[in-house]
Design brief:
Blueprint (H helix, E strand, L loop, with lengths): L10 H10 L5 E6 L2 H9 L5 E3 L1 H9 L9 H12 L7 E4 L7 H13 L4 E4 L19 H18 L4 E6 L2 H18 L4 E4 L5 H11 L4 E4 L11 H7 L3 E4 L2 H20 L14 H7 L2 H10 L10
Parallel strand pairs: 1-2, 1-8, 2-3, 3-4, 4-5, 5-6, 6-7, 7-8
Helix pairs in contact: 4-5, 5-6, 7-8
């Protein structure tokens, strides 16, 4: 409750308000830990996306092959969502991590963690990244059961979270089969439609038309099976949400690899310089709230940082 006695909107309410704006495309940079989230927030983004692949890689050091548990994902999402409780976070929830009861628990846990939106897919529990081949799907009835369980859990929790239904059926069942699943999921109460692995701009435009008025989400994975739409192109297609899950993990890989190679071969890291400048610990800590944390301590009567650092 705000100090003036008025209720502050939840991040789920903020996300819904953005979805209700017909002229808005919600652009979500992919983050996977507190540091990448802080960097994105410092740039003024209005929504974040927690990538499941990035979480699996950063938390477990493993490829995105369905090895992350609900606890792994929820804990990471909770940390990211609460860095700035005013900025909505959309988080990957994979398959919901089990049957209907487990899907319900996942939704409840994500809501308690402060997540504004989450997506559930129709792969088997031993899933894989949506831009890899060989994906296996559950039946339509099992998939709709997942969505139904999510809607029921949301209602029982007396809170809110934007439920995004994702299908990976395009690869094996074709467009018509994928569309059937999306419409069935929306019929059960999903708020947003997410066709994974869309293959062409024409197919994307058809999907947006076929799902109207339900808002649709585009997943931009450079090097994957989908077109590398820019923000403007995604807006022109008619998407309402565009997530960029590889944004952080893609740029970190060559930068860190280059720095390690320089250390091993030249004995000095030079590749991180920008215009001849290196970043001091204090400058890096500033991104992660150093100043605000110190000010909080001083206002509370603490003396540890009263003279600065």
């Amino acid at each position: 409750m705000a100090t003036n006695g008025t209720s502050r909107p939840t991040t789920a309410q903020k996300l819904r308000a953005m979805l209700e704006d017909p002229g808005k495309l919600i652009v979500c940079p992919g983050v996977y830990d507190g540091y990448t989230a802080r960097i994105a927030l410092a740039e003024g983004v209005d929504c974040l996306y927690m990538t499941g692949a990035g979480t699996t890689m950063s938390v477990l050091g493993m490829a995105d092959l369905g090895v992350a548990t609900m606890n792994d994902m929820r804990d990471n999402a909770s940390m990211i969502a609460n860095i700035d409780p005013d900025t909505p976070l959309i988080a990957d929830a994979d398959t919901g991590y089990g049957g209907a009861i487990m899907v319900g628990r996942t939704v409840t846990q994500y809501m308690l963690a402060g997540v504004a939106g989450m997506h559930l897919e129709d792969q088997v529990v031993t899933k894989r990244c949506g831009h890899l081949s060989g994906k296996q799907l559950v039946s339509v009835s099992e998939y709709t059961s997942r969505i139904r369980a999510a809607v029921m859990a949301r209602a029982a929790a007396r809170g809110d979270i934007v439920l995004i239904a994702r299908t990976d059926a395009l690869q094996s069942l074709g467009y018509d089969g994928a569309l059937q699943r999306m419409r069935a999921a929306v019929g059960e109460g999903a708020d947003v439609a997410f066709l994974e692995g869309v293959q062409t701009r024409e197919q994307a435009e058809q999907f947006v038309r076929d799902m109207a008025p339900t808002p649709c989400l585009f997943n931009n994975v450079p090097g994957g099976v989908s077109p590398d739409f820019s923000v403007d192109e995604a807006r022109q297609v008619g998407y309402r949400i565009a997530i960029y899950p590889a944004l952080g993990i893609e740029v970190v890989y060559p930068a860190v690899r280059k720095a390690v190679r320089q250390l091993l071969t030249e004995g000095k890291v030079k590749g991180v310089e920008v215009d001849g400048k290196r970043w001091s610990p204090r400058e890096l800590f500033e991104v992660c709230g150093l100043r605000e944390t110190m000010e909080f301590d001083v206002k509370a009567g603490g003396t540890a940082y009263s003279k600065g650092v």
